[in-house]
Amino acid sequence: MPAPLAPAPLAPLPSIFKKAAAIFGAQLLDTGQYFFPRKGQADLKLDLAATPVMEFPSGRRILFAKNDSLPAADQAVGGAFWKKALIVTLSYDASLRELLYTICRMIDPHGCENTVSFADNGITVTVRGELIYKNAGNPGKICVVLLDTADQRLPVSLHQFLEKNQIVVSEWIDGENFFGPAPVSKSSGQAPGPLPGYLVTPDTSRPAAFVADFAAAFGMKYQAGVEISFPCAGFQVKARSNLLSIAPGREFLVDFGDLQGDAIASIEATGFSVLQISPKQAYGSVVSALLDVMPADIQINPVFNGADRPAASHVSIEVPGRLVTLSTGAGKVNVLITDRSCDAHILSFLNHSGIRVIQVSGK
């Protein structure tokens, strides 16, 4: 029996300097020698393998000296020859994150950070990453994020939304066997724009139409003009009302001011519950009344994370409103109720995450 084939050897991963150069879009000089002229002395020979140099599009150079490999006198020679050069001393066991932070503080001394927030129509967006710094030569900022796998990448819709708000998220996989820009995964290749039927703007021309649209968004059954019969003052009375079936065995009559006198008390005496909604009731109040009778889990001002990855690199979106989770015969339904108009890219992200959106004014 032949011996099993050994796996192909992995290509050696790049050094932290090559990784950093790729992330910052710089050119790395890390092989060969560089000579600096010295007056009255032999040229200073710089071994680029021991003291690599990064050249940035702006013309700035950073020379990295490990520990005491470049004496102060030699540093002065290099600095005099390269006017835009900065010299950094690093330990031999410096990590990639340490190197990235060092470079960031040099190219953006006053702005290098790891969190930035902004508001979009009352929706709070918080971007976190390894580094967030000024996008040289362009408006806005760049956020660098190191990932373990491509599945941790942000959806395309959020990339486009953030770029529209002048934040470029630069995602890189830094794994045990691979380093490089994060490719677009299947889960992140969604087209912008909400899914059909996932954005609901209820009819506010009259309360009955509003309730019908609200119920449809949750997949609840709403029947208008259902005939009912109940005893009242010694008589069997017939009338018409509206039936809302929230879940199996949980049904309500919805009255919009049509039932008069003792009719409501008589109906409830038979075991049926009646939800009363006045013709001029504010629609924000109507939503609250409906939620009060729904066996649902409710989160106030929910926060949505852009991808499944460590909290330190989350992009989070806080939407004013209520996230309602309702168990139905067809499974759980997640609906965000808000009075804010969401950007199409945010709607796309929410919809592809299985969340419907009801946009309703509180008036």
Strand content: 35-45%
Q: Tell me the radius of gyration.
A: 32 Å
- Which descriptor suits the 3D outline? rod-shaped
Poorly predicted sequence stretches spanning 5 or more consecutive residues: 1-11
For the termini, the CA-CA separation is 79 Å
Determine the mean pLDDT.
85
Helix and strand run: HEEEEEHEHEEEHEEEHEEEHEHEEEEEHE
Q: Which range best describes the helical content: under 10%, 10-25%, 25-40%, 40-55%, 55-70% or over 70%?
A: 10-25%
Which structural class do the helices and strands define?
alpha+beta
Count every helix, treating DSSP H or I runs of 4 or more residues as helices. Answer: 8
Give me the count of strands. 22
The major β-sheet equals: 7 strands, mixed
Description:
The chain is α+β, with helices and mostly antiparallel strands. Among the domains are: 16-104, no CATH class; 113-188, no CATH class; 207-212 and 221-278, no CATH class. It contains 8 helices and 22 strands. The strands form 5 sheets. Strands 7, 8, 9, 10, 11, 18 and 19 form a 7-stranded mixed beta sheet that branches. Helix 8 (344-352) links the parallel strand 21 and strand 22. The radius of gyration is 32 Å and the shape is rod-shaped. The N and C termini lie far apart (79 Å). The model is unreliable at 1-11 (pLDDT under 50).
Short description:
The chain has 363 residues and is an alpha+beta fold. Helices cover 21% and strands 38% of the residues.
